[in-house]
Give the backbone structure.
Amino acid sequence: EPEVTQTPSHQVTQMGQEVILRCVPISNHLYFYWYRQILGQKVEFLVSFYNNEISEKSEIFDDQFSVERPDGSNFTLKIRSTKLEDSAMYFCASSEFEDEQFFGPGTRLTVL
Amino acid sequence: AQTVTQSQPEMSVQEAETVTLSCTYDTSESDYYLFWYKQPPSRQMILVIRQEAYKQQNATENRFSVNFQKAAKSFSLKISDSQLGDAAMYFCAYRSPTSGTYKYIFGTGTRLKVLA
C-alpha cells in the first residue's frame, strides 16, 4: 500500500541554522500539508499546498518557513533560521482530493 | 475559529473490553467532517474512522464505532473487544468543508493503554 515517507526521522541542528525537511507524498495525490506537534501539545496545521502554490497557511508559518515541490515527487519544508521553539515533530500529509489525508511518520526536529 | 477538545490525556482498558474516547468540538458551521486517527508508537497516523456531519447515522468500521451527537458537538470513539494492537495515541480531528482549505484541526490526543 502506498505510504507517505519523510526524511530524516530525526534532525538535530543549532539555533540559527537552516533545515530542510523532506517528504515524498503518495504519487497520485494533489494536496500536500505540513503539520507540527510540539512535545505534549496538539498537532497544529502549518501550510497546505496545491497546484504548486500555497493554498492556506497558519499564523505559525511566518517568513522563516517556506515549502517547495522541487521535482514533482518531493515536498519540502524549509526553516530558514531555526529557533529553540521550532523543536517539534513535523508531519507531512497528502490527499488525493479534499478527502482523507495520509500522514508520514514525522521528522523530529531538535534545535539546540 | 473551530476548536477540538480531547479531555482524556490517557485511558486504560483490559484486553477484550470496550473503551470510549471522548472528543468535543466547537464550530459555527453546519456541515463538516470529523475523523479519528490512530498513531501507534513511532508510526504514522492512520485513519480509523470518519463521519460526515450531514449523515445522521453513526459511522462504524469493524470494532470501531462513533457516537456522533451534532447538537452537543460531541464525537466519541468506541473500541469494542480491545486488542493489544489498539494501544496507541488517538487523535480526533475536524475538517471544514470550505473549498480551498482542507486543513485538519486536531485535539491534543488520548493515549490508550491496553492491559493484557
